[in-house]
Design goal:
By secondary structure, the chain is an alpha/beta fold. The strands form 5 sheets. A 7-stranded mixed β-sheet has the order 14-15-16-13-12-17-18, sandwiched between helices. Strands 9-8-7-10-11-19 form a 6-stranded mixed β-sheet, sandwiched between helices. It has a 3-stranded antiparallel β-sheet with strand order 5-6-20, with no helix packed on it. The chain is globular, with a radius of gyration of 23 Å. The N and C termini lie far apart (about 70 Å). Bound molecules: nicotinamide-adenine-dinucleotide (NAD). The site of nicotinamide-adenine-dinucleotide has 21 residues, from helix 7 and helix 8.
């Protein structure tokens, strides 16, 4: 198996190292597996110059040609799936099977957006005789994008696919803790023949990069995925320069389990989904509100399934859940568990770090938490499920909506009326009924309230990377 890649920046179609670097750790054993170069302001100046040239060329390239290059890059990433997945598991910890699925997911974003970019139709608006109104779309310009560490490949793919399909150039700062996914995207785009400057990859000190790129007049869209706190900070910075933002931020997904479903089947599905990516997913099912009649059976089945999960090194074929990605997640989990215990909640399984080498934390189930427990209000972003009984669907919806977040929400019911009640009543960008899937390439994904602004995926996602121009043409 190929080893972990040699990490570099990709600016103006060329690879470069820098004088400042930072180690990359394997969360399964805390060993150093690589060294990521950190960009200086001079590197960013070069990226901006390259992206300006790249935009001139790419925005005037036929959408079909853009799509051909994107599809070729996706095909290369599919060919290289084993090598890429291996690198992702090394740097992030997730099981190899999940890393492979992530690579495929990233390719799907490229493939769907490449096709949709060719359908960015405008319209002719009928009006008074002698004048023709034409509304059409143009790529917004250079995009400054910031992607997080939880999905090293699919997160950057989403932003890059949107920008390239729309005809924009992009400078993306991918995650320093998990840089190999983005590096492999750069390799694939380079090998597929993307012109120099259209796509630029940097790593660095996050605040140094964002505070330099966002105020630039050349930056015409800021696309960020990460925590709500950082998203608000970057939005404020962008607002000072009237630069639009696309913000995909934190969630705290509620799951409403109605008493007309099989509680064991719902619990098993939920527990499996909870441990995906060790719970480090902004859509991870977390706050379970279960109707009283099935509460005991649901909770028991959930705990049994959680306890049966094999936790270990992601490279081991038996592993179902790897370590969390960094030590900050361990500290966060431990603090939330301690607070829940102090407030009288029952920790039914898990709750303590496993071993002291590697960032392993077991699936953790906590029941009967008061509404003001920290875990009920702060996104755990780890393998933690919180289960509470509710009397009615109305009470569950009220509790689901009680937080400032509104990203993904889930419901289990066999009643069409209740499904409608959940779909209409829950404040979230994405509501899923009888499935815990929330985000695929062909539909828009994003949040309301503190979970963010704008959508990624689907036709709505692509629209952010374009600006609308109206032409008024009087016939003379
Ligand atoms: P954090 O708030 O320090 O960082 C979140 C992300 O923002 C990271 O990718 C980081 O590199 C980036 N970032 C931080 N400061 C920045 C700046 N000034 N400019 C540009 N980028 C900046 O937290 P963390 O410990 O890395 O992650 C913890 C929390 O972040 C989680 O609890 C979760 O809520 C959130 N998160 C969300 C997602 C998501 O998919 N929405 C992904 C990763 C993290």
């Amino acid at each position: 198996m190929t080893t972990y890649p040699d990490l570099k920046l990709y600016i103006g179609g060329a690879w470069r190292k820098t004088s400042e670097e930072q180690p990359v750790l394997n969360p399964a054993d805390e060993s150093v597996i690589g060294s990521v170069p950190l960009a200086s302001h001079a590197d960013l100046d070069d990226a901006l110059t390259a992206a300006a040239e790249g935009f001139k060329l790419w925005s005037r390239t036929a959408p079909r040609t853009r799509a051909e290059i994107m599809l070729k890059a996706a095909a290369l990433m599919r060919e290289r799936v084993e090598e890429i997945a291996h690198a992702i598991t090394l740097e992030h910890g997730k099981p190899l099977a999940q890393a492979r699925l992530e690579v495929v997911r990233g390719c799907e974003f490229f493939e769907w957006d490449a096709a949709e970019g060719q359908r960015a139709y405008g319209r002719v608006v009928p009006s008074e005789p002698g004048i023709r109104y034409v509304v059409f779309h143009q790529p917004v310009g250079t995009v400054a994008a910031f992607s997080p560490w939880n999905f090293p490949m699919s997160q950057p793919c989403r932003k890059i696919a949107g920008a390239l399909a729309a005809g924009c150039s992009i400078i993306i700062k991918a995650a320093e803790e998990t840089p190999a996914g983005a590096l492999h995207i750069a390799r694939a785009l380079h090998d597929a023949g993307v012109p120099p400057g259209v796509f630029n990859l940097v790593f660095g000190v996050p605040a140094r990069i964002s505070s330099y790129l966002i105020p630039q007049a050349q930056t015409r869209l800021v696309a960020f995925t990460g925590s709500t706190a950082v998203g608000k900070h970057l939005s404020e910075l962008a607002a000072r320069h009237m630069t639009p933002v696309l913000m995909e931020l934190g969630g705290h997904a509620p799951v409403i389990v109605c008493d007309d479903v099989d509680p064991v089947a719902a619990a098993h599905l939920s527990a499996i989904r909870k441990v995906r990516n060790a719970g480090q997913v902004c859509t991870s099912p977390t706050r379970f509100f279960v109707q009283e009649d099935i509460y005991e059976r649901f909770t028991k089945a959930f705990v049994e399934k959680a306890q049966a999960v094999t936790v270990g090194n992601g490279l081991d074929a038996k592993t179902e859940m790897g370590p969390v990605a960094n030590h900050r997640r361990i500290e966060a989990m431990e603090a939330l568990v301690a607070d829940a215990r102090a407030r009288g909640a029952r920790v039914l399984t898990g709750g303590e770090r496993l071993g002291n080498r590697g960032y392993f934390f077991p699936p953790t189930v906590i029941a009967e938490l008061p509404d003001d427990a920290r875990a009920m209000r702060e996104e755990p972003f780890g393998p933690m499920a919180l289960i509470n009984p509710v009397r009615s669907v109305e009470e569950a919806i009220e509790k689901a909506n009680s937080l400032p977040f509104g990203l993904a929400a889930y419901g289990f019911t066999h009643s069409a009326a209740r499904a409608d009640q959940l779909a209409d009543g829950i404040e979230a960008g994405n509501v899923s009924i009888n499935t815990l899937e929330a985000s695929v390439a062909e539909v828009p994904f994003g949040g309301v309230k503190d979970s963010g602004y704008g959508r990624e995926g689907g036709a709505e996602g692509l629209a952010h990377y374009m600006t609308v121009k109206t032409l008024s043409h009087r016939m003379v």
